[in-house]
Amino acid sequence: VQLVESGGGLVQPGGSLRLSCAASGFTLSGYAMRWFRQAPGKEREVVATLIGTDGYTTYADSVKGRFTTSRDNAKNTLYLQMNSLKPEDSAVYYCNAAGVFGQGTQVTVSA
């Protein structure tokens, strides 16, 4: 059972990134899935949640309207599309499902 994130990097304020979270060893669609982030010196926080076969989503107020999470069942992969990025979005981003966390991917928003 494993989750592997990718897609992080350095982006200027106002830019976009798409994170991916590939699952192996289990089927994502059977679980609630979450994106977390953790910035230096801060607690890990939930950014987005996707649950159910209908893919119901919820978002933290700080990212609502800018981030979108989705799932590709055929690829067994979770995505986080991040638009209008701000410096305060800089953090290590983790996906989570079935009690498993990925290794994280660094997102840095800086001019």
Provide an overview of this structure.
With 111 residues, the protein is an all-beta fold. It has no helices and 11 strands. Strands 2, 4, 5, 6, 9, 10 and 11 form a 7-stranded mixed sheet that branches. Strands 1-3-8-7 form a 4-stranded antiparallel sheet, with no helix packed on it. A hairpin with a 6-residue loop joins strand 4 and strand 5 (45-51). 31% of the residues are buried.
The main β sheet shows up as: 7 strands, mixed
* Total of helices: 0
Tell me the series of helices and strands, N- to C-terminal.
EEEEEEEEEEE
- Helix and strand content put the structural class at mainly beta
Kindly, what is the distance between the CA atoms of the first and last residues, rounded to a whole number of angstroms?
A: 38 Å
Count of distinct strands: 11
Proportion of beta-strand residues: over 45%
The coarse silhouette is globular
Helix content: under 10%
What's the mean pLDDT score?
Answer: 95
Low-confidence stretches: none
* Radius of gyration, in angstroms, nearest whole number: 13 Å
Features of the shown structure:
111 residues, mainly beta, 7-stranded mixed beta sheet, 4-stranded antiparallel beta sheet, 0% helix
Give the topology.
Blueprint: E1 2-6, E2 9-11, E3 17-24, E4 33-38, E5 45-51, E6 56-59, E7 67-72, E8 77-82, E9 91-97, E10 100-101, E11 105-109
